[in-house]
Each structure stands twice: as structure tokens, then as C-alpha cells.
Design goal:
Layout (H helix, E strand, L loop, with lengths): L4 H4 L6 H8 L6 H12 L17 H19 L13 H13 L1 H4 L7 E3 L9 E12 L5 E11 L3 E3 L1 H12 L2 E2 L1 H16 L4 E9 H4 L10 E6 L2 H4 L1 H17 L3
Parallel strand pairs: 2-5
Antiparallel strand pairs: 1-4, 2-3, 3-6, 6-7
Bound molecules: zinc ion.
The site of zinc ion has 5 residues, from loops.
């Protein structure tokens, strides 16, 4: 059969398209998903959430594929995973830990945050500051980032449950991140779920990549601040936020 030129004009398949069409029957599911994301121009950096591209049933399959890859890493590191009892299940433990725990925020959809109306006559109009303990991992070295995020918000016409602020912060944290980007991510997601334009996020964290290697700094602390809306434009709001953080730190030193 002669293929008419017009059938392909303007829509010639790229290698990425072909891989995506093939699905994972003939290769790795992770490759098929990566191909779909590339085709759609979807960014999939270590700090990005890609839950829209995964089905819940994919997780086990992806863990199996990552187990195989971690086995190869252990082999290349010349670690005997056949007779060393402590290394026998390590590849699978690593794969599960990455997908379900330390990078779980990449693969899980955003936590459900039901918003409650705050529009009655005597509605709360003040500032809320929530202290959230976070655990993250630096994208550069995959070393732990451990700290506290203080989330400040001026109450808008909707409010979310107090624990939801921390759920959002932890969902953003459980990825490969840079602290500067993490601060931005938390602010953006809190603005989305609350509809508030007035949000501040301050993070204090220690970094395993500075403590466990390199400069071996055991008392280093990194602070980042993101201010939006009134937190940025109104010095009074900014001061109240910083004062509240200090009060929180008196109450519970980190
Ligand atoms: Zn690092």
C-alpha cells in the first residue's frame, strides 16, 4: 500500500511518540511514562508532582522496575547483595522508600483540603501562623533536609482545617527539592487551596549535604522566606508574621 504523503504531513511521529504508543508491554513502564511527559511538554524535575501521569496501579510496577535498577547500582558499588544479609533486600527497600516515602510527594495527588466558609459577619479576619515540621531531600545529593516551615496567611473567605497546612507542606517536601524552591512551592499551593493572595512562608532547615559530607557543618541552618500579597507590601503584616514566628520558637524551639 502506498502511504499518501498527506497522511503524515505535519504530524510525523517522533521517536518519543512511538515509544509512548508502544506502552510498557515491550519495555519499561517508566520509559513509557517519561515519553508521554516529554511529548506533552510536562516538566518532571525532582521537585515536580507527576501524579496526573500515573495510575495507582502503576506504583507497584514502577517499584519493581526501580528495584532492578537499584540492584544494578549495588552491584556497581561492589556490594555483595547475595550473601550479605543486610544488603539482600536493600534494592527493594530503596525503591519502596523513594516511591512511597521520601519522594512520595511527586507521585501522590495533592491532599484533599476541604475549605470551610469564613464569610459570616463575625468572621475571623486576623493572621494565622501554622508551624509545620518537614522532611525533604536535596535534589543535588539526595541527602535529608530537616526543618520547620512557618506558614502565615491572612484569613480569606475560605479556611482550610489546620492540619491541612502541614499536609500541603509535607506533600511539597517529600520530593527532591531546593529549599528556595520548596518555600515557593508551599506558598503557591497554600494560595491555590485557600484562595488567599496574602501568604508568607518561612523555612528553617538543616541539610545533610552540608552536615554529612563536604563542609561537615554540624550547626548550619538555612533560612528562606517567601512573601506574597500583604506580607510583601505591608510592613505591619510582615512584622506581625516575623513576631509570630519568634513567639512560636519560644514555645517550641526546634
Ligand atoms: Zn545537596
Amino acid at each position: 500500500m502506498v502511504v499518501k504523503f498527506n497522511e503524515y504531513a505535519g504530524k510525523k511521529k517522533t521517536a518519543v511518540d512511538a515509544m509512548a504508543d508502544k506502552g510498557y508491554e515491550e519495555g519499561y513502564l517508566a520509559d513509557a511514562i517519561r515519553a508521554r511527559m516529554k511529548r506533552d511538554g510536562k516538566r518532571f524535575w525532582a521537585g515536580d508532582n507527576i501524579s496526573d501521569y500515573l495510575h495507582e496501579s502503576d506504583r507497584e510496577h514502577l517499584i519493581n522496575e526501580a528495584t532492578e535498577a537499584f540492584e544494578l547500582v549495588l552491584d556497581r558499588l561492589l556490594i555483595d547483595r547475595e550473601t550479605d544479609p543486610n544488603s539482600q533486600g536493600t534494592a527493594r527497600r530503596l525503591a519502596k522508600m523513594y516511591f512511597n516515602e521520601i519522594m512520595g510527594g511527586r507521585y501522590d495527588p495533592r491532599p484533599d483540603c476541604t475549605a470551610f466558609p469564613n464569610d459570616s459577619e463575625d468572621r475571623y479576619t486576623g493572621m494565622l501562623v501554622v508551624r509545620s515540621e518537614i522532611r525533604s531531600m536535596c535534589s543535588h545529593h539526595h541527602q535529608p533536609v530537616v526543618g520547620v516551615a512557618y506558614i502565615g496567611i491572612l484569613a480569606a473567605e475560605k479556611l482550610i482545617g489546620l492540619s491541612k497546612y502541614t499536609r500541603i507542606a509535607q506533600w511539597c517536601s517529600r520530593r527532591g527539592t531546593l529549599q528556595e524552591e520548596l518555600c515557593n512551592d508551599i506558598a503557591r499551593e497554600i494560595m491555590k487551596v485557600t484562595g488567599s493572595e496574602d501568604v508568607g512562608v518561612y523555612i528553617q532547615a538543616t541539610h545533610g549535604c552540608c552536615e554529612n559530607r563536604g563542609i561537615m557543618a554540624h550547626s548550619s541552618l538555612t533560612q528562606t522566606t517567601v512573601l506574597r500579597g500583604a506580607f510583601l507590601s505591608d510592613p505591619g503584616v510582615k512584622k506581625e508574621f516575623i513576631d509570630n514566628i519568634k513567639l512560636q520558637q519560644d514555645f517550641a524551639p526546634r
